[in-house]
Structures are given as C-alpha cells and as structure tokens.
C-alpha cells in the first residue's frame, strides 16, 4: 500500500490528509505527525486574546478526528527530512530519535514565529497567534488601566525567492510582513474592549508596520480606507518601522526610532521552520521555503509536496492559501496513483474577515491586486461577523475537514 506521510496538523496538513483519504480511500495509508495533540483554529485566537472565548473552544482533538477517518496519528516533533532516502526523523515524549519512511510526503509544518529576533520579547512582548500567547494577552489586557498601546508586525524573513519555483511569476513576490490581517483585526477589537473596560479615553494607540504602510498586499485604495479609519479614531500610524527591541514602555526599530508602548501587541517575525536546518537542503530556497511547481511538487524531489506557509509560493501566509495548495497537491497525487481527478488551478486571492465581535460587525477583504488582478473589495457589515462565527463553527463541526471552504469565501 502507498504510504503518505503528512507533517503538520494545521490548515494545510489537515486538508491534505483528509483530501488524500477521501480521494484514494483504502488504497493509501495516511499518517499525520503533529507536535500537539490538537489543531487550534488560529483565526479565532484573537477572540481568546480579548477574553470572549477560551482557547479550548477552538481545539480539535487530532487522535479522535483523524482515526475516525482512517488516518494514523503520531504525536511527535519532526526534527528532519531526508528526501534522498524518503525518511523523516521525529521525537516523542518517550524517544529522542524515531524514523519513519514514506512513499510520498506532504511538508505542511508552516513557518516559525521568530521571537528571538526581538530583544525583550520574553519580558514585554504580547501576541495572539497561538493559544498560550492569546491567553497571556488577555491576562495583560485585563490588568491594563490606560497608557500607550502599539499594535503591529515584525519582519518576514523571506529570503530572495532564490531559486524560484516553476509557477507563474505573479503568484509570489517579496513582502515585508508575512500577514498583517491579525494586526488589522486587533486594531478593530482592542478599542471596544478598552471602551467596555472604561479605559479607552485613557489610552493612545499606535499602529505600525515594517512596510511602507500597513496591508501592502492589498490595493492602495483599500489601504487608504483603512488609514482614514485609523485617523478618525485618533490612532498614530508609523510605517517602515522594523522592530528590533521591546522595553517596558516603548518599542525600538532597527534604525533607532521609538514608539511609546506600555503594551506592545505584535505579530512576531516569520521565518522558516526550524526543521529546515536539519533537512535535505535542495528542497528549499535561500529563505528556507520549499521550491515547487504549480501542483506543489518539489522540483528536485517530486514525491515531496509542500503546502501552506512552508511553500515559497504562498504569499502572504494565509489559511485560505494553505487549504487551496493542500487540495491541489492531493488532487495531483490522486492522478499519479491512477485515480482520475480534476486538479484545481491555483488562484491566489487575499481573503480574510477582520472581526469586531464586541460590536457584532466585521470587515471583509477580497483582493487580487498583489497578483496582478483587479479585484479589491473592503466591506464592513454585521453579516461578515456572522460569517466569521459560522466559519469557526464549521471548522470545529468538521474537525478541520473543510471540504466546502472554497465555496465559503468572504467576497
């Protein structure tokens, strides 16, 4: 029986495992390795960060979810990929050095939060990207009694896209931040939280970005809408701010600029997963992201696929692109294994919903201008808030098997 090994249990890994099993059934043995026993619905970790939900509300138990679909689950930390011998090394709580062989591999471990690039992070940094970070942010917001808040993102250590994969050039480009959607969403959530707490009038908020302005992956017209909204709320805006250090009452850029911040809420720098350092080097580009063709196959090792954030192609790093790449990869695999399957065409599109749950509204973004398209939609409505809630419920109800997600876009 053909052995498919999936590394990672987030959007891309789950979509790949479920899709492969759905398309190939008993003809394929699917195993997924993840370093936590659950998969968190990360888009709603920001809700945890403002205390309107618990992280456990958005955690899928992988062992029960995967085994129910006939997929094997290993709780372990991947330590390296040897693509030349078709082996993956990993460790568990009981062993330091296990190895597992595969016929086909899906590398879906995502990127790494490079908090070590920011001096003072452990003492003063705050974020909501992961469950534990979100819980800690809420604890700090609960104690906040006014002052200065800075909200922004760290750099994306992307490399130079060298070598570039075999796909249309407009699909991937250099960007300063891996994804500023969470920054935008937090800028909507924090003011009503502070208003409810009674300290908004005692608080000054600054939005910053390492880019020439925020959200440079969408159109100039849409960015202007966002900046006008910030101006109307009295926010300061600081661009080209590449954060280097956090102190107890300020953040400092690599060129010495300072922003007052009693609380710094940051999307940490993104960089390649640590596993890359211990893996076959010619799988990756100079930034540590996998080089593939348009069906997500490694150029040098065609039995290896890369889906989601680990792929050079996916820019910015979005859940919508992760599920799309995983689905395409497994459609390609099905055809290779003798099951005629229509392969979707990759259609990069920046789709997100920035929720404002305390005011029961949300702003949806649907934009293709980064990829040379002409679609640029920014829309605020209560319906978008409902869509965000329903999407979270759908993820949990299906245990992350979002077969209909491509029909549930926000545009």
Give a verbal description of the structure:
It comes from Candidatus Mancarchaeum acidiphilum. GO terms for molecular function: oxidoreductase activity. This is Sulfide:quinone oxidoreductase. Pfam families: Pyr_redox_2. The protein folds into two domains: 188 residues, FAD/NAD(P)-binding domain; 156 residues, FAD/NAD(P)-binding domain (3-Layer(bba) Sandwich), CATH 3.50.50.60. 48% of the residues are buried. Helix 1 packs parallel to helix 8. The strands form seven sheets. The protein has a five-stranded parallel beta sheet. The protein has a five-stranded parallel beta sheet with strand order 11-18-12-13-14. With 411 residues, it is of the alpha/beta class. The mean pLDDT is 96. The protein has nine helices and 23 strands. Helix content is 26%, strand content 25%. The longest helix has 18 residues.
Short summary:
The chain has 411 residues and is α/β, with parallel strands linked by helices.
The portion of residues assigned to helices is 25-40%
- Cα-atom Rg, whole angstroms? 21 Å
**Which structural class best describes the helix and strand composition?**
alpha/beta
Question: Low-confidence parts lasting 5 or more residues at pLDDT below 50?
Answer: none
* β-sheet strand percentage: 25-35%
Form type:
globular
Average pLDDT reading: 96
């Amino acid at each position: 029986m053909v052995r498919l090994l999936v590394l990672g249990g987030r959007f891309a890994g789950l979509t790949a495992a479920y899709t492969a099993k759905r398309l190939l059934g008993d003809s394929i043995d699917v195993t997924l390795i993840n370093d936590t026993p659950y998969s968190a619905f990360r888009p709603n970790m920001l809700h945890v960060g403002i205390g309107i939900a618990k992280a456990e509300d958005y955690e899928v138990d992988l062992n029960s979810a995967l085994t129910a679909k006939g997929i094997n689950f290993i709780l372990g930390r991947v330590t390296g990929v040897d693509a030349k011998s078709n082996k993956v090394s990993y460790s568990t709580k009981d062993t330091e050095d296990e190895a597992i062989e595969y016929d086909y591999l899906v590398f879906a471990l995502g990127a790494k939060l490079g908090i070590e690039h920011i001096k003072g992070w452990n003492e003063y940094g705050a974020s909501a990207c992961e469950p534990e970070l979100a819980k800690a942010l809420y604890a700090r917001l609960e104690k906040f009694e006014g002052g200065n808040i800075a909200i922004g993102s760290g750099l994306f250590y992307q490399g130079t896209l060298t070598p570039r994969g075999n796909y249309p050039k407009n699909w991937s480009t250099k960007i300063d931040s891996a994804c500023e959607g969470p920054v935008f969403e937090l800028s909507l959530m924090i003011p009503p939280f502070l208003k409810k707490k009674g300290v908004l009038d005692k608080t000054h908020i600054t939005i910053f970005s390492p880019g020439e302005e925020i959200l440079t992956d969408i159109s100039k017209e849409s960015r202007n809408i966002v900046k006008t909204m910030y101006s109307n709320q009295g926010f300061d805006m600081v661009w080209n701010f590449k954060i280097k250090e956090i102190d107890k009452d300020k953040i400092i850029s690599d060129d010495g600029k300072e922003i007052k911040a009693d609380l710094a809420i940051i999307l940490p720098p993104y960089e390649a997963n640590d596993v890359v350092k211990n893996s076959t080097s010619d799988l990756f580009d100079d930034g540590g992201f996998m080089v593939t063709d348009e069906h997500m196959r490694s150029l040098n090792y065609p039995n290896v696929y890369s889906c989601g954030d680990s792929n050079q192609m996916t820019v910015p790093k979005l859940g919508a692109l992760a599920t799309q790449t995983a689905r395409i990869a497994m459609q390609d695999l099905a055809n290779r294994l003798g099951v005629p399957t229509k392969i979707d065409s990759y259609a990069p599109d920046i789709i997100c919903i920035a929720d404002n749950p305390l005011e029961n509204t949300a702003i949806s973004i649907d934009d293709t201008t980064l990829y040379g398209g002409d679609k640029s939609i920014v829309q605020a409505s209560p319906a978008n808030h409902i869509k965000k809630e329903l999407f979270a419920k759908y993820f949990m109800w299906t245990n992350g098997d979002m077969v209909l997600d491509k029909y549930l876009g926000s545009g």
